[in-house]
Amino acid sequence: MFPLSNWTELDVWLYIHAEKIPIVPLYCAREREVVSRNGSIVLIYSKDQLLPGEKTEFVKCRMRSLGCTPCTGAIRSEADSVPKIIEEMISFRRSERENRAIDHDEEGSMEIKKREGYF
């Protein structure tokens, strides 16, 4: 019913690479202005986004999942190309959703929801 729901993040990157599909630059690592917030690295586009007492820093990072700014965190990374992202994916096995605020209620909660037939 949902054939892509069984693809891993690595499967997706391998397909992108094989088919030479263009990607959004946020997926590639580069120096970005961020703030550390509740255990996540949050991109900052305007000083208006800062909470009281927060200070920005520049960190080489990339997005593994794209969503709204408060919900999606970046990861520290040197992977600035699709082949390097694939290498990174092979070198560690953490959910791409670990930086999503919606998933902080329980470890791997979206994977649990998937197994329960949520989608």
Q: Count the beta strands.
A: 4
| Structural category | alpha+beta
Q: What is the H/E string?
A: HEEEEHH
What radius of gyration results from the CA coordinates? 15 Å
Strand order in the sheet with the most strands: 2-1-3-4
How many domains is the backbone divided into? Answer: 1
What is the overall pLDDT average?
83
Low-confidence stretches: none
Q: Could you describe the largest sheet, including whether it forms a barrel?
A: 4 strands, antiparallel
Shape: globular
* Residues in helices, as a percent range: 10-25%
Question: Which keywords apply here?
Answer:
single chain, 119 residues, alpha+beta, 3 helices, 4 strands, globular
Structure commentary:
This protein is an alpha+beta fold and 119 residues long. The protein has one domain (3-115). The protein has three helices and four strands. The chain has helices at 9-19, 82-91, 109-115; strands spanning 30-37, 40-43, 57-63, 74-76. Strands 2-1-3-4 form a four-stranded antiparallel sheet, with no helix packed on it. Helix 1 (9-19) packs antiparallel against helix 2 (82-91). The longest helix has 11 residues, at 9-19. The chain is globular and about 45 Å long. The N and C termini lie close together (9 Å).
List the helices and strands and how they pair.
Elements: H1 9-19, E1 30-37, E2 40-43, E3 57-63, E4 74-76, H2 82-91, H3 109-115
Antiparallel strand pairs: 1-2, 1-3, 3-4
Helix pairs in contact: 1-2
Give a concise summary.
The protein is an alpha+beta fold and 119 residues long.
